[in-house]
Amino acid sequence: MTWEDAVTHPLIEIERVSKTFTTRQGALVTALDDISLRIGRSEFVVIVGPSGCGKSTLLRLISGVLPASSGAVRVDGTPVTGPRGDIGMVFQRPALLPWRTVLSNAMLAADVTPMSRTEARRRAERFLDLVGLAEFAGAYPGELSGGMQQRVGIARALVHDPKVLLMDEPFGALDALTRDHMSLELQRIWMEDEKTVLFITHSIQEAVFLADRVLVMQARPGRIVEEIAVDLPRPRTLRMLNSDAFGEHVAALRRHFENEEAMSEPAGGHGAVLPVPAKEAP
Fold first, then answer.
1. Is residue 192 over pLDDT 60?
2. pTM of the entire structure?
3. Are 63 and 99 members of one domain?
4. Whose CA, among 10, 12, 138, 253, lies 20 to 30 Å from 74?
């Protein structure tokens, strides 16, 4: 999927969308201002930006959990007016139900959609196999590592066959080695299942590793200020992290944030992260 394909055959269309909130004191806060964006079918798009720039708010608007204050959001040509079955969500913490087995957690779609339990079980078993957890179907969340729990969350999000997968910092709570492994796993799952993915991260290198396109957002109010196409070949490997081509993409992104005094470099994993103030915009 190229940028030109996304423009001419978009699956997600966001046109001049803004979102404002009212504080308890009655003041208006603009979280997003005049956002326009098109994302193509099977495209993997990553958003980076400092906390408070409205990344999570944008995902909530696309999912239908929040209404836009102005502008239009469409998925597959139809307006988003509330939560819908063709969108799956994966969060930073998978929020698995501890009293349910891995298989039962993955089958949650049968409880909240018209899907039959027979079909939900068939699809849950398929996606647990896809994420490498078929042999843990009878285990409970407390018996799994953090990375394994997150894979259950990804499988659960895919069971109802969404067209779009929205991922809000899904690997942010994982250690560096597990995060690397999960990036490889997500790329493999995406290449096999061909979903459209919109992914949020604070890691510049994670963004370059996963994305077809990286969107750079600024804060207060949240706006998209740059789009960078990542033309690295797939499947991408961890060896690419040391390549000149990969480094050039990372450098291009870092230039947008080099005036940020809080730019930091963690000890391992996917490297440079953006400054993270205390609280994300609503």
1. yes
2. 0.85
3. no
4. 253
